[in-house]
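To assess whether ligand presence alters the predicted conformation, the chain was also submitted together with carboxymethyl coenzyme *A. Input:
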Amino acid sequence: MTKEARLIIDGKEYTFPVITGSENEDGIDITQLRNQSGCITLDPGFANTGSCISSIAFIDGEKGVLRYRGIPIEDLAQNSTFIEVAYLLIWGELPSSKQLARFSELLTDNAMLHENLKNHFEGFPWNAHPMAMLSAMINALGCYHKELSDLDAHEAMEAAAARIISKVRTIAAFSYKMTLGEPFIYPAPELRYVSNFLHMMFSVPHKKYEAMPEVVRAIDLMLMLHADHEQNCSTSTVRIVASAGANLFSSISAGVCALWGRQHGGANMAVIKMLEDIYDGGMDAKQCVEMAKDKNNPFRLMGFGHRVYKNYDPRARILKMACDKLFTKLKHSDPLLDIALELEEMALQDDYFQERNLYPNVDFYSGLIMRAIGIPTNMFTVIFAIGRLPGWIAHWREVVEDKKGRIARPRQIYTGYNERHYIPIDKREDK
Ligand code: CMC
């Protein structure tokens, strides 16, 4: 039986269809609400709003479930790689060996940046934030690949996806080199995706960086776990920009800016800052938890809480184990890990966090892994962005391929002045 929803406004009843997703989640289709009733809905932060129909990722926040194209994240973390997952997200199916080999070859072929593009880095001050550089450089990259504006053909889309996934890694590494004042290290075609990134980040002309397999695996895993998360702030940004007809590069460049925010991807840097503050004696773990609970203090326990997960974030669970494994393998110790474990335990036993279902999210442990590998804190969100690219590309593609798609254009409830007249400057009161 098809479900429907009835809404009564001022005594008049309206009926709306209910759309049910493949995991039985119901959404009231209100596309005719304003036409029929003159009313709109008000949902700041969109916590109750489905902005689209999508088949890319599924989250059950109550149970702590995340699946990419139906495959549980735990299964992928155990058996797959970032590049395979990228293919899965963008094209909907795991690649055959032949498809994966072609995609990998495209990534290798596209790793270099145009030499002129390389010069753009010189326009940034040495201490520019790498996320600012990343966003600007992705937009600039689009100017060098105008041929990719027609992305209907499968080959063109595949080339564009490979280009952006491959080149963003080079841009990220170059932006790091720039802040160090070191020469750019060009991509090495014999290296795989993550090893090549680490090579461009950490090699110097007189010494090649040899990444340990465990380090490569940890970064690969982290990229995979960040690859998509349905309608989060940055992905929604990419979709909104795409809905206006913007090209892939500009849409993703906007997504990078959204991701930078400290409530979103920037939280991975904020977690380390918080742990460092505790370590440096600025406050202890208990004070930090108390501060997060204080409603008069804007401080939040960074790396905790999530709009959708009301349970342990499955990505955080995997990363916590990966962190433990990596530290053991590298014989690495970090006092910040001890503080993180203490904070987690304290928060999970606290009524405030329990009542609100606040658990560690993906950002709580990812920074500790990156620190152990030697990635500087201001590059953390860049790594998140590299990981999120396949998701952004898949969502961009979903938007442009939706023949019934409309430009994203929400409405508002206006609470400003009613109509009033212009006052000439000599008649205005001095303030
Ligand atoms: N510390 C203390 N209190 C919190 C926290 C936190 N980290 N997160 C949520 N709360 C409280 C919040 O104050 C509210 O309390 P009350 O009901 O008394 O007003 C309640 O929990 C519900 O929170 P919310 O504000 O409705 O949650 P939201 O869905 O608007 O925000 C969030 C989600 C992730 C922005 C928020 O939990 C937060 O700021 N966390 C810290 C930043 C962080 O770790 N962000 C990374 C998110 S995961 C990766 C990503 O998406 O990029």
